[in-house]
From TrEMBL:
It comes from the Bacteria. The keyword Acyltransferase does not apply. This is Hydrogenase nickel incorporation protein HypB. It comes from Streptomyces ureilyticus. The gene is hypB. Residues 220-256 are annotated as: Disordered. InterPro entries: CobW/HypB/UreG_nucleotide-bd (IPR003495), Hyd_mat_HypB (IPR004392), P-loop_NTPase (IPR027417). Transmembrane segments: none annotated.
Amino acid sequence: MCESVDEVTQAVLAKNDGLAVSLREELAGRGVMVVNLLSSPGSGKTELLGRVLARAVERRIPVAALTADLATENDAHRLARSGAPVKQLLTDGLCHLEARQLRAHVESWLPDATALLFVENVGNLVCPAAYDLGESLRIVCMAVTEGEDKPLKYPTAFGSAHLVVLTKTDLAEPAAFDAAAFDAHVQRVNPGVEVVRSCARDGDGIDTLLERVLAARDGGPVHRPPLAPHPHGHLHEPAGEDAQGASGLVARRRVS
């Protein structure tokens, strides 16, 4: 009997989840916390990460970064200016990262002293949202120029975020960005999640973001999103009011 596309997809995700669980445990044993950064292209994620890395280096925090793209090493060169160890991961056309790719680079490259590993995922809010990389913190970034309804359009990404970062806030007025509507949309798909407002150009929000990451690393409370990966791999489904708030989404993950 031929398997359906959905069955194949679920099998792929299940295999990835198993690898992610073991990788998270392995890295925790080494004292490494992984932060997975998701966004669409052009959100300012690379510039934001570069500023965060530079601030961490200034504070002598052992930090490193992996940046993923389909092609070119442009982002790795940009991030390396921070002074942190940086590695480019080329996906050869794949629109997302998977736990197996992260494991390979961790085993072959990650400096021994690393305490924080930032992973800049491929610019895409669809496929990357379905894949647990073994991260302990998932941060979704969005620029004000993308429109305040973005969380409703990509509820799986925003609904699985431990933290949301709004970027390019200096452009909010010319972009006619409705901040109140944005906040309401975020809370609809992910009740209680914190939104950090940032502007990489003038440094706003950089220290706040780094402090939130460090607090999580040090065992502080971390927001529990309705679509958080379960410790054993699969996503928790929203229930009750959370399910309604997330527009009744996702009985299970699907890859678009």
